[in-house]
Each structure stands twice: as C-alpha cells, then as structure tokens.
Amino acid sequence: MDIILDRKQMLDIDKRTIEEYKTPSRVLMECAGVRCTDAIISRYPDELKQGALVLCGSGNNGGDGYVVARHLYQITKNILILSFGKKNYSKETKANRSLCEKLNIPIIHIKKAADLCSAKMPDLRSFGVIIDAIYGIGFRGSLPDEIAELFKLLSPLPQRRVALDIPSGIDANTGNGSALVMDLTLAIAALKYGHLLGDGKRYCGEIITLPIGIPPSFFDEINSFFYRELILPERFAESHKGSYGRIEIFGGSPGFEGSVCLSALAALRSGGGLASEALGLC
C-alpha cells in the first residue's frame, strides 16, 4: 500500500530529511539515481545491451538522470545524454553533470527544435532504452517546443521508455498534460496524485515506487490518501458462485436501469460471486 502525496507534501518531506536528518540533498539524489538504475537494469537487461538515451533537464529530476547515466555507463558504453533547459543547474545537478563529462559520456544540449536535426545527432533508433528525466514534480504548464518535437520523434519508435518520478509534461498534482507514453514510471519515494489522475495514468504505464532513504515516520505524519491494488483471494476449483457472497441491488426507475447494471458489474469485479438486480421498483 503506497501513500499518495501532492507536490508540496513531497517537497516538504525532502526538505525535512535534509534539515532534520542532516542528509545532504546530493546523497538523496544519488540514492534516487541508484535505485532507478537498479530497477532499469532488472527490468530491461537485454534492451540495455543496445544502450540508453537519457533525457536530462536542468532541475533535480535531470540530476537523477545524470546519476542514472553515470551508473549505466558501467555496463554499456552506448550512452547518450540529451540535455535541456537554460543550464541554471542546481548545485547537485551541476555536480552530477560534471561527473558525466569527466567520464566522457556524450552530452548534446538541445536549445531549439532545429537542434534535433543536427548532424551531431545519432540515429535515435540505436538505443534500447529511453530514460525521461527532463521534468519532475515541479513541472507546470506546457512543454517547450523542442521537447514536444522530440517526443513526436520518439513516439513511434519501439524502444522501452522509463520515466524517473513522473513523465515529463504531466502535472504532479492533477495528472493533466501531455507526455511521451511510458512503459515504466519509477515513482521516487512516494506516489503522486498525477500518477493516478487525469492524463497521468495513461502516460505512466506500469508504476513502481522506490524508497530512497526518507524516514518512514515522515510519511506517517501526513494526512493523505493511500493507494492499493485490488487483490482478490484465491478461488479454488471446487468452489462456485455461491461461495463468494450474494449481492442484491435495488433501484432503477423505468428507463434508468443502467446505474443498477453498472453496480452489479462492479460488485462482481470486486469479488462477489452472484449479483441480482431488482429493477423498476421506484
């Protein structure tokens, strides 16, 4: 069962971890990047043999991306980083970008959409995995032209796609926005409302929550919702519909029986064995 946080709650928890537990923000970034790297290696070992294209912004989500690129470089040398933004990096992101530069990991900075057609750009089909670390939970509004154009180029390609924390372009509070459709989203520390609401659920693909060392007590103190996949008990071969409970649904005035039918279907999908309807009694 995962807690669901909004943007401010997540930022406040990060801040408390840094201030109260004296955990440097760069350590949190390294933990997030390492956990994401491990998840990607575990999920897509064969695809990584073809290399990875890592999309990095200038904020902390981009910093996580630089950490992932650095660690993936230990297992495949076919790594390319496309960087975006005005280069107003946070201290932690700047440090991790610098480490990638020292390892001679190729970095191409994209300032405008036309840069995507530059002679320096390799064939984007040559990578097995695409990792989206452009924007994180701080994103609001619409995607810049160069990123929207890149997503159009990547959308028809067959590679596996992984988002760090949340797909770039999706609002972490509302789920509204437009993004590249992911196979896997690695929610860092906790689920965000944007993973489950609006357009978010469609763009996220499978979602895995990764702990990064934030004290569990911080989550316990937050008044929030929890998300849990519906898990039905095992059904045995010798059982029958009467073994799992009967639901009787009354309602539906003449001409308005649809809601009762939907309620019966929901009852069965929730684990009931037999649903009966009494219609037109109102």
Brief overview:
This protein is α/β, with parallel strands linked by helices. It contains ten helices and twelve strands.
Tag the structure with descriptive keywords.
282 residues; three-stranded mixed beta sheet; Rossmann fold; 10 helices; single chain
Question: What does this 3D model show about the protein?
Answer:
The structure is a single chain. By secondary structure, this protein is α/β, with parallel strands linked by helices. The chain folds into 2 domains: 2-227, Rossmann fold; 241-279, no CATH class. It has 10 helices and 12 strands. The strands form 3 sheets. Strands 4-3-2-5-6-7-9 form a 7-stranded parallel β-sheet, with helices on one face. A 3-stranded mixed β-sheet has the order 8-1-10. Helix 2 crosses helix 4 (60-72) and helix 4 runs parallel beside helix 5 (91-102). The longest helix is centred in the first third of the chain and has 19 residues, at 25-43. The protein is elongated and about 70 Å long. The mean pLDDT is 93.
Topology, pairings included?
Layout: E1 2-5, H1 7-20, H2 25-43, H3 45-48, E2 52-56, H4 60-72, E3 79-83, H5 91-102, E4 107-109, E5 129-133, H6 145-154, E6 160-164, E7 184-188, E8 191-192, H7 193-196, H8 200-204, E9 206-210, H9 216-220, E10 225-227, E11 246-251, H10 258-269, E12 274-279
Parallel strand pairs: 1-8, 2-3, 2-5, 3-4, 5-6, 6-7, 7-9, 11-12
Antiparallel strand pairs: 1-10
Helix pairs in contact: 2-4, 4-5
